[in-house]
Amino acid sequence: MSLPASQPESRRWKALLFIGIAQLMVVLDGTIVNIALPAAQRDLGFSDGNRQWVVTAYALAFGGLLLFGGRIADLWGRKRAFTVGVIGFAAASALGGAAVNTSMLLGARALQGAFGAMLAPAALSLITVMFAEPKERAKALGIYGAIAGAGGAVGLLLGGVLTEYANWRWTLLVNIFFAVIAAAGAILVIHDPAGSRKGGRRLDIPGVLLACAGLVSLVYGFTRVETDGWRAPVTIVLLIAAVVLLAAFVATESRVKAPLLPLRVVGNRSRGGAYAAVAISTIGMFGLFLFLTFYLQVVLGYSPVITGVAFLPMVAGMMIGSTQIGARLTPRVAPRLLMAPGYLLAAGGLAILAQIKIDSSYTSLVLPGMVLMGLGLGTAMMPAMNLATHGVQPQDAGVASAMVNTSQQVGGAIGVALLSTIATSSTATYTRDHLHASSSPKADGMLELQAMVHGYATAIWWSAGFLVLAALVAFALIDHRHPKAAGDSVAVRPAVEEESAPTH
Predict the structure, then answer these.
(1) Which N-terminal stretch is annotated as signal sequence (predicted)?
(2) Confidence grade of residue 455 (pLDDT, cut at 50, 70, 90)
């Protein structure tokens, strides 16, 4: 069922509630299982190598299939793609929760990633086509951005609670409850606005194969960096293959009549700048989640539950920055004048967190750093998501939305690999420089902690640098003028060639 283009979607705010629940399910799944991994490993008896694959299987399927999922939403209908994605994600979660061996768990995680790749672009593109009025869309994207940004921290908290007080299987089974609510809402409330589908177009099979293979090689290549190093033959081969495959993908898309990713979507300077800024800032954000989680648990001795609680001020900061600052100012302020200061504020928060020592106070150091990080990222994320789909045809909203998620996935993969390498190298250097032949076991233990914290702090400094770089990219590439009225970005109009948007 489709609604007339001129008729406001009276149930769009109810629809946003269900879209938000589904998005939270997908985002928190990136971290909720991590805390449960040791318990799952003891239960199923898989090796340390396979433990990493529990995370990698999800990341590869999700990152590799995002563009395909976004185009499926455009061709098949966003409501249908959203509903199938939610139901499939729930079924895969049930399979993983019932896993009796390693293969069953890894297969379920890969299926979760595949259905998540269909669900995530459909969710964001539904918002862009349902909310046509600028202020309403800004508010809706602010809520969506807060959920997307805070989902990782919520996953840490929920994963800790479920693992500590229930069973590791519930970190997967809990998705069923989210999915039932989201699927019911999708069926009863969500509708595709008329004229927003790209019916009658053929699927670009060569583009699908090249994009999937290239993105999987890229994400997996950076995943292997963390375990094998930058100089390992498998790492080098994977990264070279990614470059070749993605270059072939771009060449293919410039020739086919119905491309998987129309190059005009990423060719616009402001929109391309938004994708680049999101990817770079995600590197910095992963630095916070990765190393601060280790710091709180290993150095300060927090339990998984208390660690999750410790991240809540950052979640609150993201929600305030996204819904109260970003959403309110986006309709009136040029995106780069929100994104650049937002990223710089987040970098300031990371600069505070980089001061951590083995005896640092959570209240006086960690807390203010987290709040500033959350406020800054929340403020920047909302205009970035708005700009990422601005000016595209409604029929391309799915694949444009998929590019946002792809930017985050690629940034996350690079962030984990690069920052882990930096932290490990810095820790080893500190240990070597401070090791004394006459040291006692107690002194050795203290040195190990000091070296670990030094490595974390060094990596967090690099994270702050990436957020500064994201601010510079946003300021340099994104147009200084405010985007045109909503009618240019997602208004339903004939599927003609995209109107040129300002690029300077």
Answers:
(1) none
(2) very high
Percent of the chain with pLDDT over 90: 36
Q: Which residues are CB-contacts of 265 (< 8 A; sequence separation ≥ 6)?
A: 271, 392, 396, 399, 400, 403
* Angle, in degrees to the nearest 10, between helices 397-434 and 441-477: 150
Phi, psi of 261 (to 5 degrees): -125, 95
Question: Which residue type is seen at 441?
Answer: P
Choose among 395, 498, 405: nearest CA to 74.
395
Q: Which two tokens stand for residue 381?
A: 């994320």
Q: In the CATH scheme, what is the homologous superfamily, with its name and number, of domain 9-203+260-489? A: MFS general substrate transporter like domains (1.20.1250.20)
What's the burial of 180, exposed, middle or buried (CB within 10 Å: 0-12/13-18/19+)? middle
CA 248 to each of CA 25, 71, 245: distance values in angstroms, whole numbers, following the listed order: 34, 19, 5
Contact residues for 334 (Cβ-Cβ < 8 A; gap 6+): 478, 479, 480, 481, 482
Number of helices (H) and strands (E) in the chain: give both, helices first.
18, 2
Cα–Cα distance for residue pair 387/122, rounded to 1 Å? 17
In one-letter notation, the amino acid at residue 497 is E
* Residue 2 three-state SS: strand
Q: Is 193 helix (H, G, I), strand (E, B) or coil?
A: strand
**Is the C-alpha dihedral spanning 130, 31, 274, 86 positive or negative?**
negative
Amino acid at site 36: A
Residue pair 384/374 in contact (Cβ under 8 Å)? The answer is no
Q: Which residue has the tokens 């996350």?
A: 412
pLDDT at 22 over 70: yes
Mean pLDDT of 371-382: 92
Residue entry with tokens 């805070």: 150
Distance CA 2, CA 490 (A): 16
Could you tell me if 467 and 347 are in contact, meaning their C-beta atoms sit under 8 angstroms apart? yes
Structure tokens at 287: 């630095």
Cα–Cα distance, 351 to 470 (Å, whole number): 15
- Mean pLDDT, residues 394-407 taken together: 84
Compute the average pLDDT of residues 433-456: 79
**Chain-centroid distance, C-alpha 410:** 9
158 or 501: which leads in pLDDT: 158
Of 363, 372, 317, nearest in space to 345 by CA: 372
Q: Which of 134, 189, 256 is nearest to 18 (CA)?
A: 189
Range picked from 201-210, 348-357, 490-499 for highest mean pLDDT: 348-357
